[in-house]
Amino acid sequence: MEQIIPVNENIEDYFGGYTKKTYKELIEEISTDEIDELYDYGCYLEQLKEKNMSKNVER
User: Fold this and answer.
1) Looking at the domain assignment, is residue 41 inside a domain?
2) Distance of alpha carbon 59 from alpha carbon 47, whole angstroms
3) How big is the chain by its Cα radius of gyration, in Å?
């Protein structure tokens, strides 16, 4: 059976605890492809939101 939490992993960090990196370090690590993917996902969510709002207005 696959282990859910890796060995020697801090459980608090694993489940969304505070990061030990600065914003500068995080920004330096993200690739342009990841930025594009996040932007596209944000646009997709915005379109879904607009569709749902227009459906609510039509009712």
Assistant:
1) yes
2) 19
3) 18
